[in-house]
Amino acid sequence: MNPISVGLVVVAAAALVGAAAGALAPARTRPLVTGTATAVVGLGGVLVGVAALGGQTWSLTVAHLLPLAETTLAVDALSGAFLLLIGAVAIAAGVYGIGYTSPGGAHATDEDDAAPGHDGVGAHDDASGPATAAASRTAQAVLPLFAAAMLLVPAAASVSTLLVLWELMALTSLVLVLAEHRLRRSVRDAGLWYAGMTHAGLVAIMLGLVVLAAGAGGESFAAMRAGSAGLSPATASCVFVLIFLGFGSKAGMVPLHVWLPRAHPEAPSHVSALMSAAMVTLGLYGIIRVGFDLLGGGTRWWWLLVLAVGSVSALYGVLQASVAADLKRLLAYSTTENVGLMLMGVGAAGVFAAEGNRVLAGLLLAAAVLHAVNHAAFKALLFFGAGSVLRSTGLRDLDRLGGLASRMPVTTALFAVGALGAAGLPAGNGFVSEWLLLQGLIHSVTGAMAPSVVVAISMPLAVAVVALTAGLGVATFVKAFGVGFLARPRSAAATGATESPLSMRAGMGLAAAACTALALAPSIAGAPLSRLLSVLPSVRDGAPLAGSDVSLRLAGIAGSMSPLLIVVGLLVAGLGAAALVRRVTHGAPRRATPVWGGGSTRLSPRMEYTATSFAEPLIRVFDDVLRPEQDIDVTPFAESEFLIESISYRQRVPDRVEARLYPPLLAAARRWGQWSRGIANGSVHRYLAYGFIGLLVVLVIVGITS
Amino acid sequence: MSDVVFVQMLDLVCGGLLLSGVLMLWRRELAAIVRLLIVQGVLLAALAVLLGVREQSVELYLVAAGVLVLKAVVLPGVLHRVLRDSGDAREAEPLVNVTSSLLAAALLTLVAYAVSRPLVALAPSATTRALPVGLAVVFLGFFVLVTRRHALSQVVGFLLLDNGIAATAFLATSGVPLVVELGGSLDLLLLVLVLQVLAARMRLTFGRTDMDELRELRD
Amino acid sequence: MTAAGVVGVLVQVALVVGGAPLLVGLMRQVRAVLEGRAGAGIGQPWRDLRKLMKKEAIRPEGTSWVFTSGPLVLFASTLVIAAVAPFVSTASPLDGVADLFAVVSLLLLGTVALTLAGLDTGTAFGGMGASREVTIAALAEPTILLAGFALSARVGSSNLADIVAGTLATPAQVLSPATLLAAVAFAVVVIAEAGRLPVDNPATHLELTMIHEAMILEYAGRDLAVVELASAMRLAVLLGLSVNLFVPWGVATSSAPLALLGATAVFALKVGLLGAVLAAFEVFIAKWRLFRVPELLAGSFLFGLLAVSASFFLA
Q1: What residue ranges of chain B have pLDDT lower than 50?
Q2: What parts of chain A have a pLDDT lower than 50?
Q3: Could A486 and C122 be called an inter-chain contact, meaning their C-beta atoms sit closer than 8 Å?
Q4: Cβ contacts of residue B107 below 8 Å, gap of 6+?
Q5: Strands (E) located in A162-249
Q6: What ipTM goes with this model?
Q7: Using the 8-state DSSP alphabet, how is residue A500 labeled?
Q8: Nearest-CA distance from C301 to chain A in Å?
Q9: In this predicted model, what pLDDT tens digit does every residue of A355-390 receive, in sequence order?
Q10: pLDDT value at position A123?
Q11: At what angle do helices B75-86 and B30-55 cross, to 10 degrees?
Q12: Interchain contact, A685 vs B146, CB within 8 Å
C-alpha cells in the first residue's frame, strides 16, 4: 500500500468525519473533537509529505467526479514538501485550537476594542456569548475541511482539480475569517476585502491556466508540461504574468497584499496561524510549480520581475511591521516580508536557471523552500503566542500590554523562541535560510561563468534588500517581544493576565520544537531538498546542502556553517561565565530594588516606552515612505488658555500602497457601475428592445457565418 | 390536393399572415388591430387545415379547431372587453412613427429571409420555403412589443409573436403535437388574463395604460 | 582538531578577554594625553572591573530573566566571535564555523540581548536607548553585509579564514578599489556597532544623549562588570576583524607555537595602533544628532555598494 494514498485517505476521512462531528457534537466536546480531527488531518499530510520526500510518487485519475473534466491527483517531491509543511502546522493548530475555542478567557469585542487607537474598557471574562465566538459551530466544523483543502491543493494535477480545490480552500478560510463577525465591525470589513481579493486572484489563476492548457493541448499537468514548449513566447509570458499575479496575491506580495493585514488579525488565532504559515506558501508553490515545472523554466525577465516584486514586498512588509502597534497586524506584515524573501529566492533561482547556472539556481530555490518551512514554524508559534495573549488579556495592542513574563512565563518563553527565529539571529531557524539565501546571492560573482550585467546590478541590490530586511526584522521582533512581554504591565487587562490552558501550551510547544530542530539540525533538510530539486527540469543536478549532522556544507561552492556549534559555543561561554562570576562573588544574591526614577517619584507604567515610541526613530527615518498621520489635541483650562489641562496625541501609520493604489481603482469601478445603472432606466420598452436586438444580432451572426 | 394548388394556397395563407401583421403596424385604432388579430387567427387555422389535408392527419384538424377557437374567438373577446373598459380608442403616438415602423417591417422581413436560409437549406420543400414568413411575423411581434405604448398593444404584440412562432412551427415540422399546442395555448390564455389585470390596475393608478408610466417605479 | 589548534583558540580567547580592557584603557589614555590631562593609566578598566565585582548587584522590580541574562548573552556571543575569528591563526579547528555572516549575526545577537534587557527595566531611558540602538543596528546591516559581499566576492567564499588567506596570498589586492571602498564602509560600521563618536559617546553622562549607556543604567555590581567587559571585548573584536580582514600580515598560517606567539604579538600591536588612531580621531569630533546618523550610514552604504560593483566590474 503506497503510504501516500494511505495518508491522503486519512486526510479526507478525518476531514469529513471531523466536520460532521463538529456540526453534531455538543458544545462541551466540540473543541476537542474538531481539534483532534484537524490534528489527524495534519498527521495524514505529514505522512504523505515524508513519503513523497523520501522518493515515493503517486497519481490518481477519477472521471466523472467533476462536471466536464476529470479529477487528477499526483504527488511528487515538490508537493510533498508543501504537504509536510502544511500538515505540521495543521497538527499544531489543531491541538492549539482545542484550548483556544474552549470557553473561558477574554475575547476582544467592539466595546473594549483590541486594536490600538481606542480607549478600551478592558477585557471582560465571559463564559458565554462573545467569548465563544471563535467556538461557533460553523467555525469549528469548517476547520478540518480547511486543513484538508489546503493539503489537497499541492496534490492537484489538473487545472480543474486545482481550481476546485483552490476555491474550496478560499471559501472555508473565508468562513473561518468571519467567525468573530458578531464581536467586531472590522471583521466584516476584513472578510469583504479578503473575499474580493481571493476571487480576483482566482480569476487571474484561472485565465492563466486556461490559456496554458489551451496552448499546450491538454488539461492535466502532464499534458501541459509536455506541450508548453510549443507555446509562443508572448503566450508563455502572458500565462506567467497572470499566474504570478494570481498566486502572488494569495501569497501576499505587494501591491496585492492589502487583504493580509486585515484578514489575518481578525481571524481567530489558530486560523491566523494556519493562514499565515501554511496558506501563503501555497502561493509560492503555485509559482514554482507553474514557472519551473509546467513552463519549463522560462525567460530571464520573468524571474527578474519576481525578484523585484519580492524585494519590494520584503522591504515594505518589514517596514510596516516595524511601526505597527497591533501585535497581530505586525505578524501579518511580517508574513508579507518573509514571503518577499521567499520570492526573492525563487526569482534569483529563476534568473540563474535561465542563464544556465544550475548550482546557484538549485541553492537559491532550496533556500526559498527552506525559508518557507522555517517561516511556517516560527510564524505559527508567534501567532499562537499572540492568541494566548489575546485570550488571556483581550488585547492585541502592544501599547497596552507588558509584564507578561511573570504572569505567562511559558507563553513568554515560547514566544521568545519564535521571535528569535523570526529575527534571523543565530540559534533561531530563520538564520539558516537567510544565510543560505545570502550565500546564493553572493556567489553570483565568482564561479566559472562571468556574471552578466543584469546579475551584476541586481545581486548587490538584492543583498542590500535582504540585509535591510534582516535588520528591520530584528527591530520589529525586539519591539514585539520587548514591549509586549517584558517590563511592567501597561494596563489593567495586562495585569490580570493568566497562563493559557494546557492544550494551547502544547500546540505552542510543538511549533517551538520544530523551530529548535530546524535551527540546530538544518542538514536534515538536505536530502529532501535535493529530491525536490530533481523534480524541476531547469534546476536538476543541484544537490545544494550536504554535510554532517553538525555543520551545513554547500555542495559545489565554498561555504559552511554550523548552527549547532554556534549554539553550543554560546551555551558553554554563557554558563562558564556565569559559573566564574558566581565563584568570584561567592554567590552573593541580587538585591531587589525599586527602579531608578530620577530620585523623587516612583515610576508608573505610563512612563514606560510603548511600541509607538519604540518605533519613532524608524518612523522619522522612513518618513517619506510611511507618511504617518498625527493628531494633536490640546485642551487648555477654561479659565486661561495658557494653562494646559490635557494633550491628546494620536499617530497612525496607514498602508500607503493601499491608500494610493486602491481608492482610484475602486472609484473607477464605482463610476462604471453607476454608468451601467443607466442601462436599466425603468422603461419596459428598452428592456424588450435589448432582448429583441440581442436575438437579431445572434441570428444574423449565425446566419452569416454558417 | 395537387402540389400546385397546395403551393398556391400555402402562399396565399402565408401572404395573408404577413400582410395582417404589417397592417397591425399601420393601423392606429385599437379596435381595428383586434379585428386584424381575428383575421390572423383564422389564417393560422387555415394553415393548419391545409397541412392536415396534405399530411392526412386528423390531429392537425383538431389543432386547427383549437387554434380557431382560441386565437379567433376567445382571445379577441378578452381583448375587446379590455378595450371597452379602458376607454381609449386609439393608440397614442408610438415611440417610432408609422412610416419608420413600416420601413422597419420591410427590413425585418429581409432579415428573416436572410437568417432562415440555413434552416430552409436543411430540408427544402414547399412548406419550408415559406418559413421566413413565420420568422418575419415573430420579428414584427417583437417590434410591436418594443415600440407601442398602450398596454393592450403589448398584449397584441405578444400574441403576434405567438402567432409567428406557431406559424413557424407548422411550416417547419408540419404541425405540432396536440399536447404541445394545448400547453402553449393555456399559457397564452393565462398571460392574456394577467395582462388584462395589469392594464386595469394601471388605469386605476395612472388614469391611462401607458407602459412608460411604469418608469416611475424605478428608484 | 589538533592540540596546537585548540591551544591557538585558547590563546586567542585569553588575548581578547584579557586585552580588551587594556585596549579601552589605552584609548582613554591617548585621549587624555591629547586633551592635556594626566589620564588614569592603561590598567584602569581592569581596576574598575575588580571594584565592580566587589559591589552589590541589584535586580529592579518588575524585571525578569531577560534582565539578568542579558549581560551573559552579550558576553557569550562576543566570546564565540573571539574564539572563531582568525585573529591569531588561520588554521584553527573552528575554521568551518568562521563565516562572516555568522559573525555579523552574532554581533547582532549581542545587541539584541542588551536591547531587550534595556526594555525589561521598564524605564523611559531603557526604552529610549533600546529604540535608538536597534534603529542604528538595522540601518547598519546593509552596509555590513555589502562590505562582506565585496570581501567574499574577491575570494569566492564568505569564510573568514579563506578571506584572510586570500589577502595573504595576493597582497596587491589590498589596494584594489573594491577593497579600499569596502574598508571605508567597514570603518563606519565599526564605529556604529561599537558605539563610538560620532554615533554615540561612550563617556557621556547626559541620559538624553545616551544610546548604549542608557540601556545599562540599571545594572550594578557584577552584572555591570560583565557588561563593561563584554563591551570592551566587542570593541576589540570589531577592531580585530577590521585589522585582519584588510591588513592581515602577521597572522599565523600554521599552528606552530612560535608562529602563534609572533602572531599574538603582531595582532596586539595592530589592534592597539588602530585603537589609538581611533581615539585620536575622536578628540577632534563631536557627537552627531541621532537623526544625522542615518545619513552617515547611508553614505557608508553607498561605499559598500560601490565596493561590490567594483568587484563585479573591475574584477
Answers
A1: none
A2: 112-114, 117-131
A3: yes
A4: none
A5: none
A6: 0.94
A7: P
A8: 9
A9: 888 888 888 999 999 999 999 999 999 999 999 999
A10: 39
A11: 180
A12: yes
**In chain A, what residues touch C140 (CB-CB under 8 Å)?**
471
- Running DSSP on this structure, what letter comes out for residue A683? -
Radius of gyration for chain A, computed over Cα atoms and rounded to the nearest angstrom: 27
Q: Do B216 and A682 touch (CB under 8 A)?
A: yes
| Rounded-to-integer distance, Cα A459 and Cα A520, Å | 28
Query: CA nearest A79: which of A12, A154, A14, A188?
Result: A154
> Do residues A401 and A389 make contact, with C-beta atoms less than 8 angstroms apart?
yes
- Chain B contact set for A691 (CB, 8 A): 142
Least Cα separation, residue A415 to chain C (angstroms): 13
Contacts of A403 by beta carbon, 8 Å cutoff, 6+ apart: A485, A486, A487, A488, A489, A490, A494, A495, A497, A605, C62
CB B91 within 8 A of CB B156: no
Where in the sequence is the domain holding C210, given as residue range(s)? 3-313
Instruction: Using DSSP, state whether A655 is helix, strand or coil.
Output: coil
Q: Distance between CA atoms of C160 and C100, rounded to whole angstroms? A: 6
CA dist., res. A437 & res. A426, Å (int) = 15
From C68, C235, C246, select the one nearest C167 (Cα to Cα).
Answer: C246
Shortest CA distance to A143 belongs to which of A90, A86, A89, A196?
A: A90
Nearest CA in chain C to A454: C312
Residue A133's pLDDT is 58
Spatial distance between the Cα atoms of A446 and C153, rounded to a whole number of angstroms: 6
* Total of domains in chain C: 1
* Residue pair A123/A390 in contact by the 8 Å Cβ criterion: no
Q: How many domains does chain B have?
A: 1
**Closest Cα to residue A486, out of C222, C218, C231?**
C218
Assigned C-alpha cell, A149? 483543502
pLDDT < 50 stretches in chain C: none
CB contact A683 to B (< 8 Å)? yes
Q: Which residues contact A671 (CB under 8 A, 6 or more apart)?
A: none
Distance, in Å, from the CA atom of B134 to the CA atom of B113, rounded to the nearest integer, reads 10
Cell numbers that stand for A364 in this block: 537559491
Grid cell for residue B161: 409573436
Judged by 3 or more CB pairs under 8 A, whether B touches C is no
In this structure, are strands A560-561 and A545-546 parallel, antiparallel, or unpaired? unpaired
CB A25 within 8 A of CB A143: no
Is C123's CB within 8 Å of A605's CB? no
Distance CA(B39)–CA(B16), nearest Å, equals: 9
Neighbours of chain C (3+ CB pairs under 8 A): A
- Residue among C83, C122, C135 whose CB faces A618 most closely: C135
State how far residue B182 is from chain A, nearest Cα, in angstroms: 26
Q: Which regions of A467-554 does DSSP assign to beta strands (E)?
A: 545-546, 552-554
- What are the cell numbers at B15? 401572404
Interface probe for A, chosen from B145, B153, B158, B206 (most Cβ of A below 10 Å), is: B145
Place of cell 485570550: A391
Question: What are the DSSP E strand ranges found in A613-683?
Answer: 629-636, 644-652
Strand, helix or coil for residue B48: helix
Domain carrying residue B206: 3-217
C-beta atoms of B115 and A702 within 8 A? yes
Say if residue C286 is exposed, middle or buried (CB neighbours under 10 Å; 0-12, 13-18, 19+).
Answer: exposed
- Which chain A residues are Cβ-neighbours of B114 within 8 angstroms? 700, 703-704
Instruction: Classify A632 as helix, strand or coil.
Output: strand
In 3D space, the residue among C72, C77, C139 whose CA is nearest the CA of residue C109 turns out to be C77
Per CB-CB distance under 8 Å, the chain A contacts of C76 are 569-571, 573-574, 577
Q: At what angle do helices A233-251 and A300-323 cross, to 10 degrees?
A: 20
What is the structure's pLDDT at A381?
Answer: 97
Q: Do B115 and A703 touch (CB under 8 A)?
A: yes
Distance CA B87, CA C81 (A): 105
C-chain residue closest to A458, CA distance = C309
